[in-house]
Amino acid sequence: MDRQSREAFEIKWLLEAIYACYGYDFRDYAGASLKRRILNRLEQSDCRHISDMVGKMLYDSDFFELFLQDMSITVTEMFRDPKVFLRLRERVIPRLKTYSRINVWHAGCATGEEVYSLAILLHEEGLLEKTRIYATDFNNHSLEIARKGIYSQELVKYQENYLLGGGKKALSEYYRHNYDAVIMKAFLRKRITFAYHNLTRDQVFAEMHLIMCRNVLIYFNQALQNKVLGLLINSLVHKGFLVLGDKETLEFTSITHQFDDFEPGAKIYRKTAALPKANQDEA
């Protein structure tokens, strides 16, 4: 067995052990990204081989938590990809205004900066008070940061993003300074429910009018992408909106025919049909 085959075997063994012990399923994550993260953790540990990490992962919960951080999506910022928020304002918000109440799901919310960005947008468009935002992630550490809404002073540098996204005031109106940190204002926090949810194994969030799932699918292989997309479409109302990341697409997926390419430049899709029973069973 050559080195590459041996590493592939060790990685499979490691992922099976993690799934059996902790219930986290990384077995269908995209291979290159997965291998890079595992090797990064190996380099930072006192283990010589990937197989040495198996026992350490099973018996050292702190070591597993470090690995979980490695596997989490932590790249986020206020009004990331401003054009997306601008298109939401211009194209999606007018349609959401027709509902008496609005449910939004931000799947894979990381530390919450983009969730608060959306809450600010909804506030400025007069919709926040009739909206409930559900923000979920499988990383409890990230969720705790998001729930508190406390960030470094670096957050102030996203004023330009905010304006490019159609911001109508100043970003500073939505947080207060506290020594070397900033805290998002309470009226934003109270409209957001942060909760644990694992897209690879947990159930749907029903009756959502808008789902944000940006820069999450790129870490999954095709089979897992289709499974998660089945969950997302089942969580959307008819004519509901799904927003993906800049490098993500519904093209060539199992549900591409279920959506209109509503705003291609911003990766905003609109659900057009109910999910066939066969696809529900697969999802």
TrEMBL record:
Organism superkingdom: Bacteria
Residues annotated as domain CheR-type methyltransferase: 1-272
Gene Ontology molecular functions: S-adenosylmethionine-dependent methyltransferase activity
Cited InterPro entries: Bact_Chemotaxis_MeTrfase, CheR_C, CheR_MeTrfase, CheR_N, SAM-dependent_MTases_sf
UniProt-listed PROSITE patterns: CHER (PS50123)
Alphabetical list of Pfam families matching this protein: CheR (PF01739), CheR_N (PF03705)
PANTHER family attached to this UniProt entry: CHEMOTAXIS PROTEIN, CHEMOTAXIS PROTEIN METHYLTRANSFERASE
Protein name stated in the entry: Protein-glutamate O-methyltransferase CheR
